[in-house]
Amino acid sequence: MTDTQDKALVLFSGGQDSTTCLAWALERFAHVETLGFDYGQRHAVELAARGRVLAAIRERFPRWAGRLKDDHLLVTDVLARLGESALTHAKPIETPEGGLPTTFVPGRNILFFTLAAALAHGRGIGRLVGGMCETDFSGYPDCRDDTLKALQVALNLGMEARFVVETPLMWLTKAQSWALAEDLGGEALVRLVVEETHTCYLGERTPHDWGAGCGACPACALRAKGFAEWRAGRRP
Q1: Domain ranges of the chain
Q2: pLDDT tens digits for range 37-75
Q3: If DSSP codes are grouped into helix, strand and coil, which group holds residue 95?
Q4: Which of 99, 123, 160, 210 is 20 to 30 Å from 204 at the Cα level?
C-alpha cells in the first residue's frame, strides 16, 4: 500500500454511522484524520458530540489512538442559504408523496466529498471515507453507490489524483452497522456509540437503550429499529 493509500480522511459528523466508519478506518489505515462540517444545522448537538467521541476513542482504544491524527472543521453554511431543508430550517420533517424527504440537503454529500478531496490532496491522503448507505437510508440520492462512484471518477479527473471513496456501510442494514461496531471495537465501542454519538434530527438528548434522541424522528426510528434487531440477533 502506498503512503497516500495508507492514509484516510473520514467525513466525521459525530453520529453513529460516521463513528463506525471512523473505527473501520482506524482498524485499516496507519494515519487517519477527521473532517466535520458546520453547514448551518438547526442545532449544534452533533458538532458537540464530535469532540466527545474523538476524546473517548483516544482514551478507550489505545491501539487506535496513535493512528488518529488531526481533526478539521469547515464552515459550509452556504448550504443553509441555498435552500430550506428541515435539517437547516424549522420546517416539518416529512416525505411528500413521490418526492424527497424534507430533510434532504441538496448537494451536501457532493460538496462534502469535494472539500474533503481538496483537503486530502494537500495532505497526501488517498482514502476518503463516508458513512453513506443505500440499504437503510432516508432516500437521499447523494447517498447512492452510483452517485459516489461517479463522484470518485470526477474528483480523480479534476484533481489529477487517485482518491478511493470508501463507503463501508453502503450495503449494510442498520442492524448490521451495530454488528460491525461490535466486531471492530467490542462492547466498548457499542457503549461509546450509545453514550456519546448523536443522530437525532431534532437535536434532543433523551436517553434510550440505543442512544440519545427524541425517539420519534426518522433518524431515531431507524437507529432504534436497527439496535433492537441487532440485539435480538445476538441472543442465544
Answers
A1: 4-199
A2: 999 998 889 999 999 999 999 999 999 999 999 999 999
A3: coil
A4: 99
Looking at residue 178, its amino acid is: W
Q: Supply 214's cell numbers.
A: 427524541
* In the block, residue with C-alpha cell 453513529: 16
Tally Cβ neighbours within 10 Å of residue 98.
Answer: 5
Q: Strands 127-129 and 68-75: what pairing?
A: unpaired
Q: Which three-class secondary structure state does DSSP give residue 131?
A: coil
Q: Which three cell numbers stand for residue 46?
A: 452533533
Is residue 162 a contact partner of residue 4, using CB atoms and an 8 Å limit?
yes
Count of positions (residues) in the chain? 236
CA distance 216 to 202: 9
Report the predicted TM-score, pTM, of the whole model to 2 decimal places.
0.95
Hey, is 112 helix, strand or coil? helix
Cell of 121: 490532496
Q: What is the CATH number of domain 4-199?
A: 3.40.50.620
Q: How many CB atoms lie within 10 A of CB 235?
A: 5
Residue 105 DSSP label: -
Residues 6+ apart with CB under 8 A from 56: 192, 196
